[in-house]
Amino acid sequence: xxxxxxxxxxxxxxxxxxxxxxxxxxxxxxxxxxxxxxxxxxxxxxxxxxxxxxxxxxxxxxxxxxxxxxxxxxxxxxxxxxxxxxxxxxxxxxxxxxxxxxxxxxxxxxxxxxxxxxxxxxxxxxxxxxxxxxxxxxxxxxxxxxxxxxxxxxxxxxxxxxxxxxxxxxxxxxxxxxxxxxxxxxxxxxxxxxxxxxxxxxxxxxxxxxxxxxxxxxxxxxxxxxxxxxxxxxxxxxxxxxxxxxxxxxxxxxxxxxxxxxxxxxxxxxxxxxxxxxxxxxxxxxxxxxxxxxxxxx
Length: 298
Known about the structure:
Blueprint (H helix, E strand, L loop, with lengths): L8 H24 L7 H25 L3 H24 L7 H29 L5 H22 L8 H26 L4 H22 L5 H8 L5 H12 L1 H15 L1 H17 L7 H4 L9
């Protein structure tokens, strides 16, 4: 992701922000595996800082893009990422005091962010004339089924059922809507592949988060240790770290792919501009502009 000559300053900053994001997210996970860093506040801080790096990257794309036509969908993606960051703060207990308020605050803020993501998808669908109904609606239907089945398998078995259990269903379906729209675009135009992959990983991360929140009878680390037959002290420690970071291992890359798909969106708009120029009718020749002798001249 090296910056090319002639790029605006914000566009040159974006690759550095990606390095910061990667180091904060994955470097933080690795360092948390050592005893001196194996504390909740350290891992929480690196997770939140990595999310903030993506917010900054999103708005750098908006301010640095040289084509005004692309700024609106990029702005919607950046704002969606900003609301996602607020959701991270809420889930981390930074915005609200109680666990109940933190959970509902996270659901609401993430839901708002996904409305912005889906709005960007609708603009891209219209701008690039991606009107294959089978790919679009088929993708949305498949991901809605996945979101509902995932909720039924992960959340519903946990009893007694509270308001949060039922609130998780429409939220999961909303994420399924984002996954469906982003994948619907990617199925019709490979230039939106990163966007589609990001939407799919986001829903997967939400199901993992729901598993951690609602299914205390299941331990991801123990399941993985038994699956891979690595249950000694080292293996248990490794899979404990994987379990702690399972959601962020999917969620972090999902948000990164959505934000950094802006590179592909910018490139798509540039090709759209060159295609439209090539399709413009040529100007009339000099012979066509000269009135014929038999035609009266006003």
